[in-house]
Amino acid sequence: LLSHKTHLPNPFPAREPKRYHQLVHETTRKINFAVLEFSSHWISIHRGISTYQEVTTYNLIQKWLDIFAKLINL
Fold this sequence. Notes:
- The chain has two helices and no strands.
- The chain is an all-alpha fold and 74 residues long.
- The protein has a domain at 36-74.
């Protein structure tokens, strides 16, 4: 996962380092959250296939699409 130390280009002038760090922090948090959610869905999908045979391909595809939509719309 990304840490707050991840180097990103600063879109703000030097007099606004606080805003820049806030932006990095928010973005990092969103990405990490999306990655964790992605992982937990992946685990639950695998568990689901072994325990519930009625899990349909459609539902799996829908789950993945939702996750990717979240990743894109950070």
